[in-house]
Amino acid sequence: MRIFAACEPVDFRRGIDGLTAECRRLLNLDPFSGAVFLFRNRTLSALKILVYDGTGFWLCYKRLSRGKLKWWPVEGGGQVSARDLQVLLYHGDPRSAGYAPEWRRVQQPSVSN
């Protein structure tokens, strides 16, 4: 799954329609592509996740009860790995987190009779 983060903050009064417009404006990407789009507020205290599942949009909102997000991509097209997103959602910093290496596809062993 492709995950993209808008590097600059967005107005968190925006809902699904406003964030789909931001997907096109900030990221130059199609919000109907099935990719996951991440947005943050100006103060780094909340994030929104937008994804289209083929039948409609999901919009998730997380506001930290304390502190600020410890990390946010600032360049490089805003592409984020699933591992980085997981650490970010748990209020961590992927640059310094000690965890298992990224997931990768493993070839299935061939079955012979």
Can you lay out the helices and strands and say which pair or pack?
Elements: E1 3-5, H1 16-27, E2 36-40, E3 46-52, E4 57-63, E5 79-80, H2 82-89
Parallel strand pairs: 1-2
Antiparallel strand pairs: 1-5, 2-3, 3-4
Describe the protein in words.
The chain is an alpha+beta fold and 113 residues long. The protein has 2 helices and 5 strands. The protein has helices spanning 16-27, 82-89, and strands at 3-5, 36-40, 46-52, 57-63, 79-80. The protein has a 5-stranded mixed β-sheet. The longest helix has 12 residues, at 16-27. The mean pLDDT is 85. InterPro entries: Transposase_IS66_Orf2 (IPR008878). It comes from Sulfidibacter corallicola. Pfam families: TnpB_IS66 (PF05717). This is IS66 family insertion sequence element accessory protein TnpB.
Overview in brief:
The chain is α+β, with helices and mostly antiparallel strands and 113 residues long. The chain has helices at 16-27, 82-89; strands at residues 3-5, 36-40, 46-52, 57-63, 79-80.
